[in-house]
């Protein structure tokens, strides 16, 4: 039997390729400081992957590099070495490796790590994302859809809600970049998002709706904090949306076939 090319690591490499426009734009904007941040998170995630491989014979994954990139871009600045180590380790171990590695996890490890930072260190200064990062999201999403690792219904679900709100006069000038970047990096994770077509539409729409709600009513939060919180809640609801979609399909099938 010949093994196909689509395995876990092929998908992880395709995801890395799809987020390259965002990574390149961010590194150009941040310079050496951004490189150092990325190397730090790569080292922390890589060490945990190696330790898990030695302890449980669980192979490391390129998905760890995606987690490191997400944290380097979105993690609060000047948080302190210990807080960053604890938060990153919590996300990588509890949300990823403890479930058997990327592909078997329920939540995105970067989302969990960032949520841990937000809840554990509420006064942490979240980064202000450069506007050009928002423009880099478009080619990243298009590349992800073309490679088959980004679900178009999920992107469209979020886009319909946010664009409709914008047309109704809602101002996303402060939160728009963060919402777009988090959509591409966290919400569109093919493992942590919904798997059924109706579920993906609902998953994206929920993220867009939460982003709209937080933009209107969460006055004291930073844009990245709002977007990460919306991503966490949308990811938690993803299995429910899939369950609803499957239940409706089974109901229609029973009515049709008796």
UniProtKB/TrEMBL annotation:
The keyword ATP-binding does not apply. It holds the Pfam family NQR2_RnfD_RnfE. It comes from the Bacteria. One of its GO terms (biological process) is transmembrane transport. InterPro entries: NqrB/RnfD (IPR004338). The keyword Cytoplasm does not apply. Keywords: Flavoprotein, FMN, Membrane, Phosphoprotein, Translocase, Transmembrane, Transmembrane helix, Transport, Ubiquinone. GO terms for cellular component: plasma membrane. This is Na+-transporting NADH:ubiquinone oxidoreductase subunit B. It comes from Primorskyibacter sedentarius. The chain crosses the membrane at residues 12-29, 35-55, 62-86, 106-124, 136-163, 201-218, 230-251.
